[in-house]
Specification:
By secondary structure, the chain is mostly helical. The protein has two domains: 182 residues, UbiA prenyltransferase (Tetracycline Repressor, domain 2, Orthogonal Bundle), CATH 1.10.357.140; 130 residues. It is 80% helix and 0% strand. The chain is built from 15 helices and no strands. Helix 2 runs antiparallel to helix 4 and helix 4 runs antiparallel to helix 8. The longest helix has 28 residues. The radius of gyration is 21 Å and the shape is flat. The chain starts with a helix and ends in a 7-residue tail after the last helix.
């Protein structure tokens, strides 16, 4: 083979590899990696908090590994599957918004049929794995999928109350991690749910304010669109940030975490509240972005503190 022929073959192979990577990237994007990563992280934290022994003792039992892997992989797959169906249902709105016009379905990179098959496989395999853990966690996974796909997604174009409804599927995996290990939806599970439920509200209020013109083009009904002054949005941010703070310290009150966690979580909740107050004062893109970025740091900090300062042992 001549040198030019060799180069041509190499170039063709490189193009094929690039195309393959591009397709993988498109399918990966359909799972909304940011959301799915948050789901995985909170599920892991909930599972860890519910472990009744030290990690070495827990890891020495093979069945525990199966429970852990089935919980994590199953939850990630169900979350990814629900996000794929969200992409399918919002494809027309995505095509009208600058921020989302290049997503896999509106851009034509992935067809509707391919997306339906992909989302269905992820969902069914995920639910099958979770069914081996316990029925309570399976029920929470089904509720998560249905509330996100069948309730929240269509509701976004009808009422701003969708913001509250959307907090439910986002928060259930935190509780699901706990129930996978404890097989009990008790007050701790409810507290974990509350932390993530309330945390999502200032987070998404900030996001809706930053991209309100895009959301208007997409036909979504949001408070940031209907109330352009931003005063109500700011008040809602502050209230939900305070509720995030209050729910964040509850694990220590319940004996699940120690004082280090309580002090740290309280400080993080206060930080989010201050950022929300600053948004109400300024009501601009910069202050909204600050709330958004602060919320990311707050959630990560709370989860890290849970791992560092776990105190509760299930009897």
């Amino acid at each position: 083979m001549s040198v030019p022929e060799t180069q041509t073959a190499a170039m063709a192979e490189a193009v094929t590899d690039t195309a393959a990577r591009s397709i993988v990237t498109q399918y990966y994007e359909l799972t909304k990696p940011g959301i799915t990563q948050m789901v995985a992280l909170t599920t892991l934290a909930g599972f860890y908090l519910a472990i009744p022994t030290d990690l070495l003792t827990f890891a020495a039992v093979p069945k525990n590994w199966f429970t852990f892997l089935a919980t994590m992989i199953g939850t990630i797959l169900v979350s990814g599957g629900s996000c794929v169906f969200n992409h399918i249902m919002e494809r027309d709105a995505d095509a009208r918004m600058k921020r989302t016009a290049t997503r896999p379905i509106p851009s034509g990179a992935v067809t509707l049929t391919q997306a339906y098959v992909f989302g269905s496989v992820l969902t069914l395999v995920g639910l099958a794995l979770i069914s081996t853990v316990n029925m309570l966690t399976l029920a929470l996974a089904v509720a998560t999928w249905l509330s996100y796909v069948a309730v929240y997604t269509p509701l976004k174009k009808k009422t701003s109350i969708a913001l509250l409804v959307g907090g439910i599927p986002g928060a259930l995996p935190f509780a699901g991690g706990w129930t996978a290990m404890s097989n009990s939806f008790d007050v701790v599970a409810l507290t974990l749910f509350a932390i993530l439920f309330f945390w999502q509200l200032p987070h998404f209020l900030a996001l809706s304010w930053m991209y309100r013109s895009d959301y208007r083009e997409g036909g979504f009904v949001m408070r940031a669109i209907n109330e352009p002054s931003g005063k109500v949005v700011g008040v809602q941010m502050i209230v939900t940030s305070v509720l995030t703070l209050a729910s964040a310290v509850m694990p220590t009150i319940l004996g699940t975490t120690g004082m280090l966690y309580a002090v740290g979580a309280g400080a993080l909740g206060l930080w989010l509240t201050v950022a929300s107050v600053q948004f109400l004062q300024r009501r601009d893109h910069t202050s909204a972005r600050r709330v958004l970025l602060t919320s990311y740091a707050v959630l990560m900090g709370i989860i890290i503190l849970m791992f560092v300062d776990k105190a509760h042992i299930i009897s």
